[in-house]
Design brief:
The chain has 13 helices and ten strands. By secondary structure, it is α/β, with parallel strands linked by helices.
């Protein structure tokens, strides 16, 4: 590959208000282009990159996928499919065919949503039953079946459960049985040897007492992978929230660099919460997806106070007893979203004022699932209608990985294949 064939991402407005042309990769024989019809005229002060992302989030119908060379992808702990969605869009941008060969999650609701959006046939399975061996040991019978089933894998994406390491977990933080599931990803790499690997988790995974991250990195590196790891802030990629994630990028074909990738795809200006959700302020649909959770009278008084006094932080005197002391560290709890800034990390508690700064900027309510999905960079064509319980929907959206993360790293890795 010559220097002029390297990956590149740029945007050019053509026929303002009709479409944006995205140049994703420059080959010696010309650029590969991805074109998207804009559903609305972009704001005059927005650049083409901003317009493209703004338009993408508001697409009602999924864009057609490329029909090029197949890219075989496995998604472990797939959830509803955030990482796979980003990989799918990267494949389309590069003229490759997204081909999911295995997606695994223990939640039947997540599996149903994944399948309906990504055209796969996922497995509702505990990963420990599929990969029941130990690293540096011969494959078990179950593991041999997995190896035969998936065959060649070009890209593995994985988001092992992060709740055990989360700083919001005050019970089993750093010492949670779920943390060892991280090693299952390394076991899959050991068995199948995918060409490229992307793993995401919370930054606190580095401090897990069981050492799952260090064990996994050692296993993958010993297999001959070039590997890089570090913490990234997804607001730098245009996700309208200050969501920090720990990333492991590994490859048998190229040398990943997290810092170089983040610098290459860094947006010119960070997007605000209002950039993502302003047009949903007065959504007329009364579906579960477009309605907020109901609140107690006490919490409605708290929400009303924030708006009536045009403030963003609730005074201590109006907080629950455990937060009335000046020294408490829960300032964002019961807080109102600042419309001109990225939101804090979206969690499964986005519908509860007591779970974070999730009170709507202009309305007496918390976020709807639709607004939370936008903030998590799920486009409108991504269908959550199979979920009929609010708590399940909140978990699914709040625990997802924004697709922009896997999009840029898949562009880099698959572009070198």
């Amino acid at each position: 590959m010559s220097a002029e064939d390297g990956p590149l991402l740029s945007y050019t407005l053509r026929n303002a208000g009709k479409h944006v042309q995205r140049i994703v990769r420059q080959h010696s024989n010309g650029p590969v282009l991805s074109r998207l019809v804009l559903p609305c005229i972009p704001k005059l002060d927005s650049d083409a990159e901003d317009s493209f992302d703004y338009s993408y989030l508001r697409l009602k119908n999924a864009p057609s996928r490329a029909k090029g060379k197949p890219v075989r992808i496995v998604d472990l702990f797939c959830g509803c499919g955030g990482l796979s969605l980003g990989a799918s869009e990267a494949c389309s941008a590069l003229g490759l065919s997204f081909t999911p060969v295995m997606a695994v999650d223990i939640s039947p609701s997540c599996v149903e949503v994944y399948d309906s959006n990504l055209g796969a046939s996922s497995l509702k399975q505990d990963i420990r039953k599929l990969l029941d061996g130990h690293v540096n040991h011969a494959p078990t019978g179950n593991e041999r079946q997995v190896m035969m089933s998936v065959g060649r894998v070009d890209l593995l994406v994985a988001g092992p459960p992060c709740q055990g390491n989360s700083d919001l977990n005050n019970y089993t933080r750093r010492n949670d049985a779920r943390n060892s599931l991280y090693v299952s990803v390394a076991r899959f790499v050991e068995l199948v040897r995918p060409n490229h690997v992307l793993i995401e988790n919370v930054p606190a995974v580095r401090r897990g007492k069981e050492g799952a991250l260090r064990t996994s990195l050692d296993v993958i590196e010993d297999l001959g992978y070039q590997i890089d790891s570090g913490v990234v802030n997804l607001s730098e990629l245009g996700v309208p929230q200050r969501r920090k994630r720990h990333i492991v990028a590994a490859s048998l074909r190229t040398t990943p660099s997290i810092s170089d990738t983040m610098a290459k795809y860094k947006v010119s200006s960070r997007r605000s919460a209002w950039w993502a959700i302003a047009d949903l302020e007065h959504a007329k649909s009364i579906s579960l997806f477009n309605t907020p959770a109901k609140h107690t009278k006490q919490n409605m008084k708290r929400i009303g106070y924030l708006h009536r006094h045009n403030v963003y932080d609730l005074p201590n005197r109006l907080r629950p007893p455990c937060q009335k002391q000046e020294s408490h560290t829960y300032k964002s709890m019961y807080g109102r979203i600042k419309r001109d800034e990225p939101i804090q990390t979206v969690t499964s508690g986005y519908g509860s004022p007591g779970q974070g700064r999730f009170v709507h900027p202009t309305q007496l309510r918390t976020l709807t699932p639709h607004e939370a999905a936008r903030l998590q960079f799920f486009p409108d064509f991504f269908d959550f209608s199979a979920v009929t319980r609010r708590t399940l929907l909140a978990d699914m959206i709040g625990n997802a990985a924004p697709m922009k993360l896997s999009f840029v790293f898949a562009l880099e890795m698959l572009g070198s294949r």
